[in-house]
Design a protein that fits this description.
Blueprint (H helix, E strand, L loop, with lengths): L11 H4 L2 H11 L4 H5 L5 E3 L15 E15 L6 E8 L4 E7 L4 H4 L5 E11 L2 E5 L2 E4 L13 H5 L2 E3 L8 H13 L10 H7 L4 H9 L4 H32 L9 H9 L6 H14 L6 E6 L5 H14 L3 E5 L3 H23 L2 E3 L5 H13 L4 E4 L13 E7 L6 H8 L7 E6 L5 H7 L4 E5 L9 E7 L3 H16 L3 E5 L19 H4 L31 H10 L8 E4 L5 H12 L5 E4 L12 E6 L7 H8 L9 E7 L6 H11 L3 H12 L7 H4 L14 H17 L7 H10 L2 H9 L1
Helix pairs in contact: 8-9, 9-25, 9-26, 10-12, 11-12, 16-25, 22-23
Amino acid sequence: MPFDVDPLDVKLSTAIGGRSATALSKGLGLETVGDLLTHYPRRYARLGELTALAELEIDANVTIVAEVLSSEKRVMKAKRGSIVEAKITDGSGILTLTFFNQPYRIDQLVPGVRGMFSGKIGEYKGMRQLAHPNYKLFEDALDDVGVTIARERVLKPIPVYPASAAMPSWAIQQAVEQVLDGLGPLADPVPPSLRSERGLLTYSRALELIHRPQKDADWRSAQSALRFQEAFVLQAALLRQRAVLRASAAAPRIPGTLSAEFDAAMPFTLTGDQTVVGEEIARDMASESPMNRLLQGEVGSGKTLVALRAMLAVADSGGQSALLAPTEVLASQHLRSIAKTLGPDLAARLRPTLLTGQMTVAERRKATLAVVSGNAQIVIGTHALLSDSVSFFDLGLVVVDEQHRFGVEQRETLRQKGKKPPHVLVLTATPIPRTVAMTVFGDLDISTISELPSGRTPIKSFVVPYTNPVLFGRVWSRAAEEISRGRQVFVVCPAIDANVSEPADRLGGESLDSAVSAPPADVPVKKSKIAPMLEMPAAPVQKIANVTEVSAALARNPVLASVRIATLHGRMTSDEKDAIMRSFAQGEIDMLVATTVIEVGVDVPNASVMVVLDAERFGVSQLHQLRGRVGRGGVPGIALFVTNADEETPARERVDVVASTLDGFELAEADLVMRREGDVLSTIQSGGKSSLRLLRVVKDSELIIQAREVAAAVLAVDPELVTHEALRDALRRRLDETEAAFLAKN
């Protein structure tokens, strides 16, 4: 197949024809030859090897190898037509194939024949089934006698691809082979000396062997070469962008009188980590290159204080700082906290100003005027800061709180409001494993605060199954005990109201009201910590816990008869949310029933208990963040994760792992292993397609580190990649517009 352009850039409609190209585009997002050839097999099967049917999950899209056990055709009773039903097996489990009005299937699905079957696993009358699956039978692999499959055909790996309904795995394989047949040699992004040093296959050979292996060693060596290439190209992209960012000119911001006054009046001593990180930030901001730093630290580790000291350095030079917060509740809290920390004199001179979408027109006009005139040297706000109507007099520092709550475009919009590129400090309380940070934020400098300020006490965490009414009843009596000691309680639900019902295994079918009622009087309740979880059968479908019904049920619970209960959720107005949080912080509310609007940043030192209902519906980092809301004021914290999930399920595993440790970095690693890392360039930031093909940032951590080192060495000698044309083309090809925008704006 002749190509007038780079072979990998050729459109699939040209390479394989419009019909197949359309199916690959619509179902899998594959547009070019390069897209198709980097759509690698997810695994490899063999003609004589059967898939373990017992491991298949309901609703999973699968491609399996199995043997036909039996088949029958029967006439439908209720309507005209027939049904062909075949049973396939792996030798132990059985799966049913169902076809309506396709009588010819009975002649194809002969008992004893093996093949690949593709479709979505469903369930009918207690039996797992595939309705109208695609399949490809292996009968053409039989020898002349029709009994023995040739040894080489049995051992040859069969690629199994991530597929769609329109393009099953074997159709993708056919398209790949059609492209490979006419492809020819490809330029290799990995320099020859480096490839030779590491003993890697050439790019062309690696693509050939990963898609058309003759033995297992073929695809393994191909994966090794392609995995390193992926890491090398990705790290080169990040390092190149890092250099571009540092080449732009920023205004140096050096601490002066205001900073000295603040440090002298500070009533406590910085932790060692806060001191070190503060010095790193000060060094960055004194430079004429813009700071681009990620600061990660556990909940309550003092990141905001470090950020405030950076804001003072900007104010010392007459500049302004903008703090972008994800919610109005958190923005309002930041305003109060910063004003209090500065003290009345500094606060009056710096005029910390709030700007949110829920402010009145008059309030917003006043705040906007303070910002554009430069009178407000510290500006705190939500997405309202991004409005075209908001201009800054001299924006010198952008602080983004909880970076995972904002998209790339939002951060870039705020950064563009500076006359010169402002320094950027991104805060996160979600710990990031080293290789993830290196891969996702490879163009940022990374600082970490591991120490917690003195006075923070460890939080005890327990998993409570709904299916044990004794333990679940103890949740509310334990909460009442804490309230009787003058402390406060959070109760978090995954939903606001009962508009949506979802499957859940709630208390053997008990109502929500009984689920939050007191335990029976004749059931002894141990005064010790929550006992180990008990194995219980699954229960009927029930509604998920929601703020509206849970708060009403808790109000009827006699154990909580004198408790002052309030609710908080995202449908409330800004004023309503702020009023509730103020009342809770001032001790006027004992128990706050809320959604995850309280997940990030809400600081109530007197809160000692966090109850999370339907905990399996939250992610690892969410549960860790929620737990961090308690135990902040010197009183012991307790986190109770109430769950429907059965033991040894992925959902239960998430809850158990959070309860097992307070180490956020350990949890981040575990979370990564459990859910895999997904996409590191676009999906988690802006919804693009997956960016990692073969690379896995946990398993391949050492490879990523090595690739970064060699990419840095290449760029040090040839920053414009003049003599590395293939690498330059790979960067262009690898980074589609979405991903390139992410790299430029992160």
